[in-house]
C-alpha cells in the first residue's frame, strides 16, 4: 500500500516556514530545519518518526505542529508518515513484525490492548509520575481508558462521541426534519422518507461497522466482547443488526454494495455522503464520530452544510458514550522515549500547538487547552465541541472495556458477513448465527 502524501501539505509548510518540504519516498515527510541548526553537531540532534491515519486537514495541521516543536526545541526533527485508516493498520503491523515501528504512533481504542499485550508499546506511567507528561488539567476518565493493569500505555489526543452526520442542505430543501436522539423506528422511517423524496439512500457504515453494532447492543445491556465469547445469550441481537441491511437492500433505501466496489472504505473523500454522480450512489448520512465533522465538511461540495445528531438507539442513555478519539503512544522501538514523551506532552498541553491542531482530533482532553481554544475555533469546530459537551455527555454511560485479543478477527468476520448479506448470499438469520457462534470460537481460542 502506498503511503499517502499531499502536495498541499508541502505548500503550506513551505509558505509558513520558508523552507522546502523534504521527504523520503512513498509519502514520508521530513521537516527541514533552518541552516543554523543544520550546522550543529549531528550527535546532538534527535530524529523522531511519527505516524498517523487521517485526512488532508489532519496531515497539514500535524506537520505544522511538529515543525513548531522543532522550532521550540532546536536539534529535534521529525520524519512523518501517514495513511488513510484502511491502509494504516496493515502498514503498522508490517513495521511491528520487523521491529521498525515509528517512535510515536497514533493508536485506536479497539487495537490498544492487542498492541500492549504483544509488547509493542511502552508504559508511559513513569513519564506521568515524573511530570514529563503533565495530566493534571486533563479529563481523568478519558486518561483511564488507556490503563491496562498498573500501566498507562497511551495518552488520548481528544474526546469524541458517535455522531450521525447528515446532508442538512439536501434535507432542508426537501422539507425533511431530522430529529436528535431518534429511536430505531424513527431512524428507519426517516431513511425511507429521504429515499422517497430525494432518491438518496442510506449508508449504515457498510463494512466499517464494529462501533455501531456495539452501540446497538449496549441498548440491550450487552457488551459485545465478553470473556472468551460474544456477548449475549443468543444470536438474536446479531440477527436484528444484519436485518437492517437485509431490509434496506430489499426495500431499496440502503446503498447497493456495488457502490463500494471501487472505493476505499472509510476514506472521507470517497464517502457516499461526499462522493457520487447520482442519488443512487449517494447517501444522505454517515455514521461517524464528532471529530470527523471538520474533514467531512471540508470534503463536501461547496454550499452543502452538514448537520449533526446522535446515533439512533432504543435506549440512548445506555448506548451513548464519550471515547478517546484516538491515542498517542510510544513504540518499543523508540530510541529516545524521553523526548517522545515530551512531544506527547506538547500535543496535550501546549495552547500554541493546539491553535494549529484546532481540535481536529476531538475536544482537547486538557480543560485548560479546551477553554483557551474556544475563541480560535470556526463555526463547525465549535459545533463539534458543543455537540460533545452539551448533547452527548449528559446522556452517556461508561465506554465498553478495551476489546480483547481476537476482536480484530471478529471484526473481519463481521465485515465479511455484512457483505454477504448485502449481496444476498446469506440471510440476516444465517449471518447473525455465524457471527455469534464463530465469533465466540475466535475469542475462546484467543483467551486460552
Give a short overview.
This protein is an alpha+beta fold and 448 residues long.
Ordered list of secondary-structure elements with their pairings:
Elements: H1 7-17, E1 22-23, E2 29-30, H2 35-38, E3 46-53, H3 56-72, E4 76-83, H4 85-97, E5 104-107, H5 109-117, H6 125-129, H7 140-144, E6 147-148, E7 151-152, E8 155-156, E9 159-160, E10 162-167, H8 168-173, H9 184-198, H10 210-218, E11 225-226, E12 229-230, H11 236-251, E13 285-289, H12 293-299, E14 306-309, H13 316-319, E15 323-324, E16 327-330, H14 337-349, H15 351-357, H16 367-373, H17 379-392, H18 407-422, H19 428-447
Parallel strand pairs: 3-4, 3-5
Antiparallel strand pairs: 1-2, 2-4, 5-16, 6-7, 8-16, 9-15, 10-13, 10-14, 11-12
Helix pairs in contact: 1-3, 3-15, 11-19, 18-19
Structure description:
With 448 residues, this protein is α+β, with helices and mostly antiparallel strands. It has two domains: 7-158 and 325-384, D-Maltodextrin-Binding Protein, domain 2; 162-321 and 398-447, 3-Layer(aba) Sandwich (D-Maltodextrin-Binding Protein, domain 2). Helix content is 44%, strand content 13%. The protein has helices spanning 7-17, 35-38, 56-72, 85-97, 109-117, 125-129, 140-144, 168-173, 184-198, 210-218, 236-251, 293-299, 316-319, 337-349, 351-357, 367-373, 379-392, 407-422, 428-447; strands spanning 22-23, 29-30, 46-53, 76-83, 104-107, 147-148, 151-152, 155-156, 159-160, 162-167, 225-226, 229-230, 285-289, 306-309, 323-324, 327-330.
CATH fold assignment of the largest domain: D-Maltodextrin-Binding Protein, domain 2
Total strand segments: 16
Radius of gyration: 22 Å
- Compute the average pLDDT: 89
Helix content: 40-55%
* The named CATH superfamily of the largest domain: Periplasmic binding protein-like II
CATH architecture of the largest domain: 3-Layer(aba) Sandwich
Which regions are unreliable across 5 or more consecutive residues at pLDDT < 50?
1-43
Give the structural class: alpha+beta
Q: Between the first and last Cα atoms, what is the distance in angstroms?
A: 33 Å
Strand order of the largest sheet: 1-2-4-3-5-16-8
Q: What overall geometry do the principal axes of the alpha carbons give?
A: globular
Strand content: 5-15%
Sketch the major β-sheet.
7 strands, mixed
Number of domains: 2
Top-tier CATH class of the largest domain = Alpha Beta
Task: Tell me the number of helical segments per DSSP (H or I, 4 or more residues long).
Answer: 19
Amino acid at each position: 500500500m502506498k503511503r499517502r502524501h499531499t502536495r498541499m501539505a508541502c505548500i503550506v509548510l513551505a509558505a509558513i516556514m520558508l523552507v522546502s518540504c523534504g521527504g523520503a519516498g512513498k509519502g514520508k515527510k521530513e521537516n527541514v530545519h533552518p541552516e543554523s541548526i543544520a550546522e550543529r553537531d549531528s550527535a546532538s540532534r534527535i530524529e523522531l518518526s511519527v505516524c498517523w491515519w487521517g485526512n488532508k486537514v489532519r496531515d497539514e495541521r500535524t506537520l505544522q505542529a511538529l515543525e513548531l516543536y522543532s522550532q521550540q526545541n532546536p536539534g529535534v526533527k521529525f520524519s512523518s508518515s501517514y495513511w488513510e485508516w484502511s491502509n494504516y493498520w496493515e502498514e503498522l503491523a508490517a513495521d511491528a513484525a520487523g521491529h521498525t515501528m515509528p517512535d510515536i504512533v497514533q493508536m485506536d481504542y479497539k487495537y490498544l490492548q492487542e498492541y500492549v499485550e504483544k509488547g509493542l508499546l511502552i508504559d508511559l506511567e513513569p513519564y506521568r509520575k515524573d511530570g514529563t507528561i503533565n495530566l493534571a488539567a486533563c479529563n481523568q476518565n478519558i486518561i483511564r481508558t488507556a490503563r491496562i493493569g498498573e500501566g498507562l500505555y497511551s495518552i488520548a489526543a481528544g474526546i469524541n462521541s458517535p455522531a450521525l452526520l447528515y446532508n442538512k442542505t439536501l434535507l432542508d430543501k426537501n422539507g425533511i426534519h431530522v430529529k436528535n436522539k431518534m429511536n430505531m423506528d424513527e431512524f428507519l422511517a426517516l431513511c425511507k422518507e429521504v429515499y422517497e423524496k430525494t432518491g438518496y439512500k442510506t449508508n449504515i457504515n457498510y463494512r466499517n461497522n464494529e462501533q455501531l453494532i456495539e452501540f446497538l447492543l449496549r441498548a440491550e445491556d450487552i457488551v459485545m466482547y465478553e470473556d472468551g465469547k460474544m456477548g449475549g445469550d443468543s444470536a438474536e441481537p446479531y440477527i436484528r443488526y444484519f436485518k437492517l441491511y437485509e431490509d434496506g437492500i430489499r426495500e431499496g433505501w440502503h446503498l447497493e454494495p456495488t457502490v463500494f466496489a471501487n472505493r476505499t472504505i472509510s476514506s472521507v473523500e470517497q464517502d457516499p455522503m461526499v462522493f457520487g454522480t447520482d442519488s443512487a450512489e449517494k447517501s444522505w448520512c454517515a455514521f461517524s464520530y464528532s471529530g470527523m465533522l471538520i474533514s467531512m465538511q471540508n470534503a463536501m461540495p461547496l454550499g452543502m452544510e452538514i448537520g449533526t445528531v446522535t446515533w439512533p438507539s432504543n435506549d440512548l442513555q445506555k448506548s451513548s458514550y464519550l471515547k478517546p478519539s484516538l491515542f498517542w503512544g510510544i513504540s518499543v522501538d523508540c530510541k529516545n522515549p524521553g523526548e517522545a514523551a515530551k512531544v506527547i506532552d506538547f500535543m496535550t498541553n501546549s495552547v500554541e500547538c493546539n491553535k494549529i491542531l484546532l481540535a481536529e482530533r476531538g475536544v482537547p482532553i486538557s480543560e485548560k487547552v479546551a477553554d483557551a481554544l474556544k475563541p480560535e475555533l470556526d463555526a463547525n469546530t465549535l459545533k463539534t465541541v458543543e455537540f460533545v459537551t452539551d448533547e452527548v455527555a449528559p446522556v452517556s454511560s461508561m465506554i465498553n472495556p478495551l476489546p480483547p485479543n481476537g476482536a480484530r478477527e471478529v471484526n473481519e468476520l463481521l465485515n465479511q458477513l455484512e457483505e454477504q448479506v448485502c449481496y444476498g448470499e446469506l440471510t440476516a438469520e444465517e449471518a447473525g448465527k455465524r457471527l455469534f457462534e464463530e465469533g465466540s470460537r475466535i475469542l475462546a481460542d484467543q483467551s486460552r
